[in-house]
Write a structure and sequence with these properties.
It is built from five helices and ten strands, in the order βααββββαβββαββα. By secondary structure, it is an alpha+beta fold. The strands form two sheets. It has an eight-stranded antiparallel sheet. A hairpin with a 5-residue loop joins β2 and β3. It is globular.
Length: 270
């Protein structure tokens, strides 16, 4: 393709390591007006500028370099950011003309996807139940790297960057690389659980379940907060303004929502 400048690879580690998050924050919003305010609040707190900053921090933490940034805030809600990265810094003379190295002058009106290469993506999904007052905010994050850099280095930073009631994490190593004799290597580091890389202070706060397929280098961890304090789940509502009956009903709704997300299935009415 004319104008395309290929990055030369020599003795490159071809393993692809991908860390994927689904992070959920759950709130109770009593009125239609409160639900709209909640969506507005989430869109302001986690707009594409802040999400870009988070992903740029991740890039620095794992020792990578930004090649290109594409970001977008959506109407009526949500935002997306995609960052293409490289293990080694690419000189300006070798950089593809389409890349901006994170310097955004004219913000693109689309999101560019870079698949199966080194990239970072984040997408937000604020939403609410049509009639029971439950509002949820989901963030999907993917950190996919090739070479020596590892997305696991940014694991705790990403967890700490969001208010998270429930977190699901997937880590997978794909492909293979070769040693000097030509022997295939399908993984280049020791791991038997994602939990090995999560800070102890975080592990103590969450209930965790692992589902791992070691022979396929696939690792999965689900996390749900242990402690439940109603006041922290109320949006635009004061706990003291609720009757005891109302508090019990709201707690039931919130815990049902959390259980359904955590276990990945609808639960019978409590």
């Amino acid at each position: 393709m004319k104008g395309y400048k290929k990055i030369k690879l020599h003795g490159f580690n071809n393993l692809t390591k991908t860390l994927s998050f689904n992070i959920y924050d759950i709130s109770y919003t009593k009125t239609e007006a409160d639900r709209k305010k909640y969506i507005e609040y989430i869109d302001e707190q986690y707009n594409s500028d802040r999400l870009t900053h988070i992903l740029e921090d991740v890039t620095e933490m794992i020792g990578a370099h930004v090649l290109n940034v594409a970001k977008q805030d959506y109407d009526p809600q949500g935002a997306s950011v995609t960052i293409l990265i490289s293990e080694e810094e690419v000189p300006q003379s070798a950089l593809d003309d389409s890349c901006n190295k994170g310097i955004l002058v004219n913000v693109p009106q689309h999101v560019v996807g870079h698949l199966d290469k080194s990239h970072l993506t984040v997408h937000t999904y604020p939403e609410y139940h049509p009639d029971n007052g439950i509002s949820t905010f989901r963030v999907d994050i993917d950190v996919s790297t090739c070479g020596q850099i590892s997305p696991l280095k940014a694991l705790n930073y990403l967890i700490d960057s969001f208010d998270s009631d429930i977190i699901t994490i997937d880590y997978r190593v794909r492909g293979f690389t070769r040693d000097a004799s030509g022997q295939k290597l399908f993984i280049d580091h020791n791991i038997n659980s994602i939990q090995n890389f999560i800070a102890k202070r975080t592990l103590n706060k969450y209930q965790l379940i692992d589902v791992n397929i070691y022979q396929e280098n696939i690792f999965h961890t689900k996390m749900m907060l242990k402690d439940f304090e109603l006041a922290s789940y109320l949006f635009e509502i004061n706990k003291d303004d609720l009757t005891v009956k109302e508090q019990r009903e709201i707690i039931t709704k919130l815990k049902k929502e959390m259980a359904e997300i955590y276990h990945g299935r609808n639960m019978p009415k409590m």
